Please model this.
Amino acid sequence: MLVIEYDVTTEGMVELVALINAVEEDGADPGGEAWLAWRRGHEDAGMGCAPVPPEVLTRMEATEDPDELRAIVETVILADRRAKEELPS
Model:
């Protein structure tokens, strides 16, 4: 499971923080649930973490075009943010 970690600035700009391989080193937890649970324990409750769906990860791995990769990452982040902002508090 690949997770995109990002921040949103006070101006509303999205900044990429990291691409995280959330699978345990021994191959356990292929869905990355343990890492996501750990990350949700931080002050932002994991708001800045977007799991990458398997079909999107396949597209990311297949491209060698940096602009296409950037666009894919941006799409994942924006979809994640939109979904999280729609949730009732």
